[in-house]
Structure formats: C-alpha cells, structure tokens
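User: I'm putting together a small comparison set for a docking exercise, and I want a reference complex before I start. The sequence is below, and the ligand is flavin-adenine dinucleotide. Could you produce the 3D structure with the ligand included, as structure tokens?
Assistant: Of course. I'll restate your input first, then give the structure tokens for the complex.
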Amino acid sequence: MQALDGGDGFLAKSAALTGFSEEELRATGMSQEYRAVVRERAGADRYRLFMEEEPCPDRADEGHGPQEARAELADAVIHLWYTGSWPGLDGAAPFTVSARAYAAGLVWRAFGGQPPGVGPGGFGSWAGAPGDVAAGAGAAR
Amino acid sequence: MSPGRPQVYDVIVVGGGFAGTLMAHRLGERGRRVLVLEAGVRAVNAAQGHRRAVDSYLAASAKVPGSPYPSHPAAPWPEVTDLTGASGGGYRSDGYLIQRGGLPYASGYVRANGGTGNVWTGLTPRMHPEDFRTDLFGYGRAWPIGYADLEPYYRAAEREIGVAADAEEQRARVGLPLPHGYVFPMRALPPSHLDRLMAGRLDGRCVKDPGAEDPVELRVVGTPHARNGVPNPSYEGGAGYVPVGASGQPDQHNRCVGHASCIPVCPAQAKYTPLKTQARWSPTVTLVDRAVVSRVLVDGTGRATGVEYLSYGDGDGDGHGGGVDRHRVTADVVVLAAHAVENAKLLLLSGLANRSDQVGRNLMDHPVLLAWGLMPEQVGPYRGPGSTSGLEGFRFGRARRRRAPFRIEIGNWGWVWATGGPEGDLAALLGPAGRQGRGRLRGAALRAAVRDRVGRQFALQFEMEQGADPANRITLDPGSRDALGLPRPVATYDLAPHVRDGIAAAKEVSDQIFALLGAEDHSDYAPGPGQPGHFVHHGRSYAFRGAGHGAGTHIMGDSPSTSVVDEWQRCWDHPGLYAIGCGSLPSVATSNPTLTMAALALRSAERVEGELAARDRPVALHRRTAPATTTTGDAS
Ligand SMILES: Cc1cc2nc3c(=O)[nH]c(=O)nc-3n(C[C@H](O)[C@H](O)[C@H](O)COP(=O)(O)OP(=O)(O)OC[C@H]3O[C@@H](n4cnc5c(N)ncnc54)[C@H](O)[C@@H]3O)c2cc1C
Ligand code: SF4
C-alpha cells in the first residue's frame, strides 16, 4: 500500500517548508496531486535531489549552483501549497492546478481566512474580528 | 399591437447587459415585442451557466473580471491585463482596445450575456444633487435634468435591482434628499470589521485637504449595495421586499454570505446581475445571443428602422466554431445598450447621430488612486463585499472648483487591486529577496510572515470625478479589425490638470488618514510593469487605475449642436433611435454610476413606451387596449 504522499516523504518535506503540519496538509486532499505536479515539472533527477536535501533548509545559501536551484524548487513547492498554482520554473508558464487546488490554498489559512469564492463565513461574518470566523470550512488555525 | 405590420418586433435592444436588460424588461411588462441582440454567449441553462462561471473563475490563473466567461474572437473585450507599464514611465497596450492617449484608458468591460453587470462590485450610491451641475464649479457639463427629475426612477431602480442601505444615514451623512418616509428595500449590510476599526480611529477627526478652505471632518459611512441583506419590512408602506436569489427566483432567505468574490462572480447569487431581471422577462422579450450588431439602419428621413448583425458559432456550448452570417432585422425603435465604448463604436460605424461631432467624445471614468498599507493589527481582509463603507466628505462643496472631487472606498480585499493579492505577497516573501539576504523564509517563520503580511492589509480607493473633455475619446481604426472584420475601437485618453490636482490632494488626505490609523503606508507609484497609469505631477510620481465606469461617449445635453442624446437618451438626429447606458452621462459624478444609469434606463423606457403607444393610437381607435399611461407603478 502506498502512503498518502507516495511514500517518499513529500508530505514531511512539504510540512517543513510550509509551516503547516502533515495533518493540515493531508486535510487539503491535495498531496498526491501536488507530488505528481512537482515530480513532473521538476523532472525525476531534480526531484530526487530536492528530496534528499535537509528537510528544513531555513538558511539556504544565496548565489547560484545546485543549492540555489534546489531553493528555487522549494520556493515553487511552497507556492504550490500556498496558492494551488505552480509558479513556473525556468521560464515555463505558471498555471493553476485546479479549482480544488485554489480552494485548498494555504495562503488564506495562514491569516485565518478563506479563498474568495470558497467557504464563505455566512451573512455578516465580515463584521466580526478575524479570530471569530474560523467557522469557515476547514479553516486551519 | 399592430397586426399586419411587416416586422415582428416593436423594439430592438442592442446588448443584453445592464441597461439593455432593464429596458427590455420594462417594455416586456407592457407587452411589447422586444428583440435583444447580444454579442456574447448566453448559457442555455441559467443554473448551469452560473456553475460554469464559478468553476471557470476558481480554476483561472488570472482571476481577472472576464475570467468566468467564455470569450470568443468575434466579441472581444478589453481586459485589465492588456496594459503594462514601462519601467521608465509610459505604458504598452496589447489588446482589443487600441490605446493612443498620453495615458491609457484603464477600464475594461465584458461581452457576455448580462454584460459588465455580471462582474461589477455592486455598489449603488445615488448621485448627489450637486453632481448634476459641475459647470457651476467651473468644469464638466451640466445635465439637462436634475436630481428631482430622476428621484422617482432612483427608487424604481433600487427596487428593480434590490438595494440594501440605511436611508437615515444616506440623508444625514451624504446629504441625499430622500423622500419623507422612504426606506430601501433591504436594511444596510453590516459594516466590515475593518470599517469599524477605521470608524473608531477616524470618525470626528479632521484632515486638511489642499482643495478645501476648512479642515474636512472624517466619517465612515455605509455604502448602498445591490446585494441581498435583511429585507426591510417597512418597505413600500409595509409591503416589504422579497430578495431575488438564484436564477432570478424570489428567495426570502438569500443573503450575501461573504464569498468576497463579487468581482467577478457571486457564487451565492446574492449580488444583483442583469441575469436576475432576464429571468423575469415577459415572454414577449426574445434574446438572440452571439449576435454582434454591426450597423444601425435608417430610412431616407433619418428615422431608425432596424439593425444589421453578424451571428457566429451557433454550434457548441462554448461559442467556438461555426461560420458567420449576416442578418437584417427591423423595428419601430432601436435602443443601443452595448456599453459606452461599444455604443460609440456602433454609431461611428453607422455614421449616425454625429451632428454635434460629440459621438465617442467626452470619454470619462473614475480614475482611481489606490493607497495601500498595513494596519497595526489583524483586520481580517478578504471577507465580505469588496467595500462596505466609504468616506464621503471629499465629494462636495467649493473644493470641487480647485481639484476633482472624490469618493473614498474602504477596500476590504487587502491589496488585491494594488499588488495582485496574496499570491503576489507570497512571491515577495519567497525567493532570495524574501528576507534581504538573511536566508529564505521557511516553515513556521514563513507561515507567521504571511499571516503578518496579509492579515493586516487594507486599501483606500480614491475615485476621482473626471469632467467631460471632448479630447478624451473613442474613435475607430479601419486599419485594424477584429475577427468579424469590424474596425477596432481606439481610446485617446488623458487626465486633465483638475483630475491630477484631485489625485495629488487625495494623496495628501491619504497620508493624514494613515497617520490617524497608525498604519504603515506601502503605496508605491514608481513606474513599472504594474503601473501603466503612471504620471508625474508637480514633480511627484502618481499612478491611477480605471474603475470600470466608462461614460460620456454619447453625451446627453439640451441642444443637438452640443450633445448626442436628449434627456430621454434619444439621439437628436434620428427619431426612433436611443443610446442608453453610462455613455449618456454628462458628468460621471462622485458616485459609482450604474444606479444612475439604471434609473435613466427606466426613465427612457417610459418614453419608448410612450412613442409606441402614440404609434398604436390610430389603429387602436376601435379596439381600446390597456391605458397607455407612462407611470412605472413602483416609482411612488
Ligand atoms: C470590475 C468592475 C466593477 C464595477 N463595479 C461597479 C460598482 O460597484 N458600481 C457601479 O455603479 N458600477 C460598477 N461598474 C460599472 C458597471 O459594470 C457598468 O456601469 C455597467 O455594467 C454598464 O452597463 P451597460 O449596460 O452600459 O454595459 P454592459 O453591462 O457592459 O452591457 C453591454 C452589453 O452589450 C453587449 N454588446 C456589446 N457590443 C455589442 C454589439 N455590437 N452587438 C450586440 N451586443 C453587444 C455586451 O456583450 C454586453 O452584454 C463596474 C465595472 C467593472 C468592470
Ligand atoms: S461577498 Fe460574496 S456572497 Fe456577498 S455579494 Fe460578494 S460574492 Fe456574493
């Protein structure tokens, strides 16, 4: 049986990068699909390098070379989780994975919000202080 | 009606958008046979069409106003992303609307059934009585009618589109002379948390406006909305009001639930769109979609007799494929309601209505200065409608003489308009630049940075009144044609010193407001790709955006030598030809224009009905039909 993240630690790696727990990431239902997107867009070699790196490259070096390329890929993976869109690497065009991916974007959860058009808070919800509205579907706080 | 007449229709309405839909509705209620020709695509099934629009929006990479709707080369429209700023100033445009002005005309529209009214924000303030006479302040044009003439139609429009607002507040804080006892169909929407934070810090405080002699007192005021709230039981003398919900059906419980995607689509169908009115059209109204009108036809006396249109791709559901056919259709009255830019294009293509040489001229918008920043605390951005309140103190009075007046909208959606929203904020935090060389942001630090960066965001939108200026205009370029072979429109546009002074004043007001709020100002008007509207005024950089309020291209006036349409929006030069929509506005005023335009459309509908009734009178001698009076009934 395959683990939800394909069994190669993609979820753990994603959690370290995004600051959202594996639980929170799993709850989005996107991890399989995102892993496939990253593998496909990065290519098998680059994906392997990326996965081999320290789980939390908080202080990735500046400059060029493989280190920089890995950091760029890590940025792209974060972008994917946070917005549901692949930002495009090496000049390739960016794209939104799907409406579901957009709806699962973490960038909104990071400040207790919901993506526009998805998971509304109810009539008058905008009047409450931001903390009051975690009721929105799946708000991770 | 008149049996034996050769044509099938009493009236042809060109455009199933905001104005055209209301016009067709009113005439349909009178049993008139109306043909609506719509350039864009209509969903075969309204509920399905709505779902598709929402899905397309959610899946779109660029969530631009047109993103929910299938576009077709036969009926293209300008999109905000057509414009890019150059790094040294200036701009580039690459789209359907050709730009040749010193500054770009920065507003788009949508050519799908329902028109731009599908994607609008839904803010519906009335014009102030003073707005009808800006000539008294030394700029713009006078209206041939005043507030009192339009007042009953404002009420009719507020009923038709379902407005939620507080009448007392509109009287006291905006100075609107609403009739005694009048209440809006629905109670005011709750102000946002951000509005309340602002009110707490701003209400009663004063700022110095360089245009005004005295300091201006600040007051956060609720904005009227065309979105469903709690019905007011005292509406219409206790008759109450039933909100209109999904697919135009009455629904006592339909409410704005705070999706925060009113531009470009409201998933809850709580925001008014013309599709709601279309659902209630009488069976005598027929809409043909994918029908691009290319010419207005007149007879030897100049009377309008019909139109020519090109129909395309009637095959599959998304409007693609199929050939192009040319049709002619006749009627007693032709009403152009194709949007300000397209109405001008049609009149120019037809070589009509231009005795005054004003067709296409006086193009106006509300040029918007955006100011954006971070409040000291979390504000809960991206919740609820795009704006729920504003500051109204800069719209009126003698200061108008010195600088363009402006309405300030408090923006609930963070920096979406300023910098493209959280995706842009995230991109700024990622990458090597993210922490200025202190290593890339990752993990918990990143999550906290996003929360801090986005959760405190707000914007102020200063919407300038732009006076009518004949030099700002739409023309046609016969050398550049669209897929149907029709010449593309050209915008020649700039901001007059009066508007630039308004923008400079707004910036000074903005600085003081930010100080009172204790907010960090992140506004940036340096030239660059995101600032096609960049300009320098008195040595300082500014940048404006378009509000989507295109107006003035078939301007209304009291003389055929200086205006295109009369007070009824009839083309002076051609009996039977009307041009309706914001293109008729002599001044774009200090309010968002669509409620006013809707009121004018309802007023013109009465005049069209009057004309048809007069036509029918001789044949009606011995078969008395319903009394042909011209009251709207609901405009009590
Ligand atoms: C993003 C955005 C937000 C806005 N928010 C607000 C707001 O909050 N408050 C406000 O007051 N206003 C707002 N507006 C402005 C408002 O949308 C317009 O004033 C209004 O929709 C104009 O109505 P109209 O009927 O003149 O044109 P439209 O609504 O654009 O309708 C024109 C119709 O004619 C059709 N058409 C065009 N050419 C042809 C042709 N040749 N043949 C046949 N049919 C044709 C089009 O397909 C369209 O359906 C906003 C606009 C935008 C873009
Ligand atoms: S806030 Fe949401 S529910 Fe309310 S009108 Fe806008 S999109 Fe519709």
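DSSP finds seven helices and two strands in chain A. The radius of gyration of chain A is 16 Å.
User: Thanks, that's exactly what I needed.
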